Amino acid sequence: MNLQNIINDIESVDPEVYERLNTRRKAMKSFANISGKLALAAVPVALGSMFNKAYGQAVPTAVIDSLKFALLLEQLEAAFYNAVVAAPGLNATLTGTSRAAFVKIQADENKHVAFLSSTIASLTSMPAPAAPAFDLTGGNSAAGTGPFSGANDPRVNYAVALAMSQTFEDTGVRAYKGQAANFLPSTGTVNDLLEAALKIHSVEARHAAKIRILRRELGGAVLAPADLKPWINNNESGILPPFAALVQASYDGEGVTQQGAFNGVGTFSGVTISATAASAAFDEPLTKAQVTAIVDPFII
Amino acid sequence: MMNRQTSSPPLQEKQISAYGLQRRNMLKFFGASAAVITLGSACKDDPAPPNQNGVNLGSGDVGILNYAYALEQLEAAFYIQVIATLYSGITPTEQAYLTDVRDHEVVHREFLKAALGASAIGALQVDFSSINFSSRASVLGTARTFEDLGVSAYNGAGKLLTDPLNLLYAGKIVSVEARHAATIRELLQINSFADTVDANALDPAMTPAAVLAAADPFIVTQINASNLPTS
Question: Is the separation of the CB atoms in B32 and B81 below 8 Å?
Fold first, then answer.
């Protein structure tokens, strides 16, 4: 897009546009500063943000907070996949197309971090929060002695890496849903931000499905039940003890079959729906507080 | 609860004044540069003159829910046929996956029908004559098209909703559609689960008009989407 042409066009109907944009040079400089750091697709969001500021439309704090929360989750996921893909301890077990799948997901999560960071920076005119230090053993400490350490460290145990990946992805899917209401009423830039969040959200669900398929294919192993599905049946993680209890908070509340006044269990036009299918047909939200409690052991 | 949507007065379009920008200026912008409008921060379009031919989806949130209901009707009818006439050589895992998907789509269809109540459109007539249900490639290829289309449709529809509860319901459904899409893609080609994404690893979003045009070959009933919100 030619930004200068757009501003010139606006100037023809609003001679004060440069004053609104806080002088031409400053406006162009500030946009250049922002856009230089932006992924291309984030430019419309940034540009919308610039005009919003010029015309007095602020993006609500709740929206910014939701984006920062999403960034933190993406930073955790990116750190997890970066560590797993680089781990020498998985060279013998994470191989072939399974390794290729992890590498693809790793790339996606790092792109989500970059996209959200640049979007937040453009909206706030400040750098997005940097990633905190993570403890991938879930021990809340740089010592790295949490429940996912030693022989159960995702960097040495492929089955554990898969189980943690599934839990992070399923949690992410639920976390985005819990933030949706903060984007309404959506107008202008918030419309764009809501759509961007939805576009990330569905990619997380694609990741979750793939990881679940990998777990199913691992077969026979203690952490991968053979009947595991790419969707969440009831409130079941499909992850067995001793890890089941550690991840259950990410699956609590997923077993509902009731949506408003509608219950999905029954026979509709000859198709009988079980409670399992009715629950799996909907992914349920998690509140920020619930998600924070889930990820806290991994954030130092 | 979504039902209240159908009993309340017709939804008003979101007010332009919410932008802090006068309507007069906004109209000037439309004349100023088409590029500005496409940036996604332009104002609400006035609805096009209604075309009353075909099944009318309606306006506001009801219109968007009817739009989703139409898509779920299409998906449910497709998978019901898939399970009724299993393609040759189907594996137990494929049958288990596709049966679950059928059930989920039936639940989505029935949920939306119930939520819309008296505002729900009727049953659509579908046309699957282009699909060879005895062929794995034809069935899974069509399934991939429908699931990716469904994800794009919900991703594009979210911002058109005004009631937070309706947005939440759409969000609860779209991630399951994305799980389906990834699963079908894996059955066709390993590691293609998210090959839909752009350079920022974002899934696509499509407008109702684009989605309905893509679905049109499979739907006999004429659908009138002219009253749907557009931004």
Answer: no
Question: 10 Å Cβ neighbour count for A240?
Answer: 14
Closest by Cβ to B14, choosing from A187, A201, A274:
A187
Residues of chain A in contact with residue B25, where contact means CB-CB under 8 angstroms, are 13-14
Asked whether the beta carbons of A187 and A163 are under 8 A apart, the reply is no
pLDDT at B65: 98
B197 touches A: beta carbon within 8 Å:
yes
CA angle B170, B207, A204 (to 5 degrees): 45
CB atoms within 10 A of CB A117: 24
Nearest CA in chain A to B156: A195
Interval B203-207 mean pLDDT: 98
Cβ contact A162:A223 at 8 Å:
yes
pLDDT in tens, B3-30: 333 333 333 333 322 233 333 333 333 3
Q: What is the pLDDT of residue A219?
A: 72
**Residue A274 with chain B: CB contacts under 8 Å:** 103
Q: What is the pLDDT of residue A55?
A: 47
If contacts are CB pairs under 8 Å, which of residues 122-151 in chain B contact chain A?
151
Round to the nearest angstrom and report the end-to-end CA distance of chain A. 42
Cα-Cα-Cα-Cα dihedral sign, residues A198, A203, A208, A210: positive
Contact call for A177 and B181, based on CB within 8 A: no
DSSP A73-99: HHHHHHHHHHHHHH-GGGTTTS-HHHH
**What is the least distance, in Å, from the CA of A185 to any CA of chain B?**
6
Query: Which residue of chain A comes nearest to B181, CA vs CA?
Result: A206
Asked if A280 and B108 come within 8 Å (Cβ–Cβ), the reply is: no
Q: What angle do CA B115, B128, B74 make, to 5 degrees?
A: 10
Q: In whole angstroms, what is the distance from residue B157 CA to residue B61 CA?
A: 10
DSSP-derived secondary structure for A213-273: HHHHHH-SSTT--TT--SS--TT-----TTTHHHHGGGTTTTT--EETTEE--EEETTEEE
pTM above 0.95, yes or no: no
pLDDT in tens, A200-211: 999 999 999 999
- The answer to whether the beta carbons of residues A125 and A276 sit under 8 Å apart is no
Q: Which residues of B touch A44 (CB under 8 A)?
A: 39-40
Is the distance from CB of B110 to CB of B73 less than 8 angstroms? no
Measure in Å the smallest separation between the Cα of B195 and chain A Cα atoms: 9
Q: Which of A207, A261, A269 sits opposite B1 (nearest CB)?
A: A261
- pLDDT of res. B19: 30
- Which residues on A lie below 8 Å from B77 (Cβ)? none
**Residues A100, A210: contact at Cβ < 8 Å?**
no
Contact A213/B180 with Cβ under 8 angstroms? Answer: no
